[in-house]
Each structure stands twice: as structure tokens, then as C-alpha cells.
Amino acid sequence: MLKKLAAISLTAGVLVLMAPAVASAAPADSDSYAETPRVAVGDPIIDICEVSTVVFGAGYFQPSENVGVSVSGFDAGASAVSGNTAASDGSMMVTFRPPADGEGSYSLAFAGTRSYTATITVSHGHDSAVSCDHDPAVAAAGSELPLTGGGLELALTGAEVSPWILGGGAAAVVAGGALVATGIVRRNKQRA
Question: Among residues 123, 107, 51, 113, which one has the least CA distance to residue 82?
């Protein structure tokens, strides 16, 4: 019984301590399934007359691919979409401006070598107007701009291994080792 308990403790401790190494075992240049090119929606909630962007990372589409973009939502035919041709590296940035009387959710469906649907919500806020007469390429006041200029910024999640997990794994290894040592001492006393 003591041997089984020691083996289980040692195995659990080794597994807990090896988990971070196994989770990051893929080399940086591997073609892992987790390395799908990123997509970012610049402003998923905008006012009428403001602009939202959908940015596809390099390799998402074929180089210079003409991607079909369809918009659905209230008075979608009066909305403006531009930039539906992928760059030479397969990246693409599409701008969307809702109609002047737009409201609610708009779905932008992208149909190319890969498909994607972005949802942008339009509300009536500070910029309500009868017509949108300003440049859609100008960022709205108070909107976030990408930090690196690439347009693919994601939040830093701080994914780290908890010290409690590492401590628990180390404690399990120590406990297993202590049980093995106790078993060895007990066996030696019985033989003597």
C-alpha cells in the first residue's frame, strides 16, 4: 500500500512540474494549429458616421486575393465598405461605415479562401447626424489606435503558471520521496 501511495505521489508531482514545459514544447517556427492568423475588429461598437475596421493578419488570405464582403443589417445597402483586396502577404484591412440612419448590429461576412463574420454594433450617440460628411479614414475622437502600427494588438493576458501549482507539485514530489525513504528504512529494520 505504501509503495502505491509513493508511486502515485511521485507521478502526480512529476506531472505537475512537467506541465508548463509540455505546454510550451512547440518550437516558435512550427506550423501548429494554434498559429492561425489573427483577426481583430477595431471598434466593434460605433456611433453612426464613425468607422470600424476589421484587420486580418498576414497569411489569412491568399496574396492579392479579392475577398467578397457582404453586409447585413438595417439599411445595409447604404453602408460603405472598402479595402476588400488582400495585400501581397495575405493580410487585409477593411473599413466599414454604417449608413447615416444605421442602428443595431451589422454582420460583415467575408468569403475568400477562409471565411469570417464580424459583428459591428451601431448606436446613436454623440455624432448623430442626417448625413455623414467627414472622412471615414479619420479615426474617431477617443478611439484606440494600435500601439505598433500593425493593427493587430491584443490584450496581454499575463498567462503564467501559478506558484501554488508549482509549490503543490514540489510538495507532492517531496512527500513521495519521504514515503519511499520511510519504506526503505522500515524494510531495513525488518531485515535486521
Answer: 51
